[in-house]
Amino acid sequence: MSVRVIAGCARGIPLKAPKGMHTRPTSDRIKEALFNIIGPRVIDSVFLDLFAGTGGIGIEALSRGASNAFFIEKDTKALDIIKNNLLNTKLEDFGEVYRTDIEVMLHNLGNEGRKFDIIFLDPPYLQEYEERVLHKISMYSLLNARGIVIVESSKRTVLPEVVQNLKLYRQKRYGDTLLTFYSL
Question: So what CATH class is 3-183?
Answer without folding.
Answer: alpha beta
